[in-house]
Design goal:
By secondary structure, the chain is of the alpha/beta class. The protein is built from five helices and seven strands; from the N terminus they run αβββαβαβαββα. Residues 1-19 form the signal peptide.
């Protein structure tokens, strides 16, 4: 219980945007990734805004492990990984950690050092991105600022260009 209480306090302290009623931020008004606590596929907590390494582009993919478009997108993406230069990927889902883990392992994402896969247990990132469909993809430049967003109909060539700019 103490760990849960401490985690909640840390989450609230690290995410002041979420603590302000009536002032919910979104990706449209805040150009950086918010500090939302996520849970990795191996059940370790981490913050969404700590994934991006300085000097690298981050591609955030909000997905569902049961969505056929998400499966197709992931297969297409992993088939073209060599075309993504100096890019990190953060795959996030509101589904259970077990479903996310199965998705990540069967797709080989857990063996790729430039992939982080996690659960958004309270759908805070989902709310921040005002999700209307999945997968939804958000490209953050090397400076940590949002460069481009894509919906499920993204052409892989367009994502590659955006991620490598």
């Amino acid at each position: 219980m103490k760990t849960l209480f401490t985690s909640l306090l840390l989450l609230m302290a690290a995410s002041p945007v979420w603590a302000q009623p009536g002032k919910a931020a979104s990706y449209k008004t805040q150009q950086t990734i918010p500090a939302v606590q996520l849970v990795s596929w191996n059940k370790q907590p981490f913050f969404s805004n700590k994934v991006q390494t300085a000097g690298k582009t981050l591609v955030l993919v909000y997905f569902s492990p049961t969505c056929s478009h998400c499966l197709e997108f992931t297969e297409s993406l992993t088939g073209k990984l060599k075309q993504f230069k100096n890019v990190q990927f953060l795959f996030v889902s509101a589904y259970s950690v077990e479903e996310i883990k199965t998705f990540a392992i069967t797709r080989g994402l857990t063996k790729m050092p430039n992939f982080t896969v996690g659960q958004d247990p309270e759908f805070k990132l989902g709310g921040f991105y005002e999700l209307k469909e999945i997968p939804s993809i958000f490209v953050y430049g090397k400076n940590g600022k949002l460069k481009k967003s894509f919906d499920s109909k993204v052409k892989m060539e367009d994502l590659i260009v955006s991620a490598n700019e």
